[in-house]
Amino acid sequence: MTTHSLETDLDVSVTEAIADWDRPGDLREHWRIATGLGWTAILDDFSGRRELLDAACGAVTALARGGIALPLRQTLVARAAAETPLSTEDAIAVHPAARGIWAPIADVLVGADGRVTTGAPAEAGRDLADRPYSVSPSSPEIPLRLTGLAEILRCQEMLGAAQGASAEARRYVTERVQFGKPLAAIPAVRTTLGQLKVDVRQLETVTHEARLRLFGDDGALAFALATAREVAAEVAPRIAQTAHQLHGAMGITYEAALHWRTELLWADCDEGARWGDDGIAAIPVDETALWSLTAPGDRGKRDERT
Known about the structure:
The protein is mainly alpha-helical.
């Protein structure tokens, strides 16, 4: 798949808009800007349009790359699932596919059946990225395409955070001079940077593959989603750990830019553990059928910002 120009356009637009934002900053003020620029309405007329998926992925990835935690992907999914258009453009909307993340401050709740209601649930706690969440006693059945959309955007958010963390680590070891030369000149550091790039590329590859399959065969999509969850669960913590290893103690200070990315990355990884159905049951056990699911699609252009 060749990346649609809308993905690049949204990526650039979001990156420019958040360049001078404080972190964590005023959530409602950031949300006002996001809605004003139309980021939350990208999937309002989704109906399986791949170019809109690409645009949504570009916005979500760029926001996370900048270390900004906003309920953008949750609202995108909720608005795409709503059976009737939301009455307010600036509403924070949450669907059951969000697994409770941001639900306690939601202005609108969209049910698994698409019905729109109000009345946010009680806050059960906050995750590592300081996002409020609620806990539901039951998990409603969600259509595979909608589950896939939510999971793809979660992986895109993780990819953005991973790219941002990798870039911060690379910048630090390039600028930090020790014994007369940058840390990046040390062979062990260069090797670690290479390992970090491989992990980010793995996350990018499985996320891209899931995007390719969202509008195709159910079995192929279920396989890609299960693979994405498995790979993300493995590489995301390692990316965060490696970035902090390269950054040293500076990476955990409040002023440092690194921890805003790694906290979001860890929080998104933990969120994946809340998925009740990992998709394994939908994957065929026949060897021939299973092998056919491993054939990759057309990769097309990929983001090199790692």
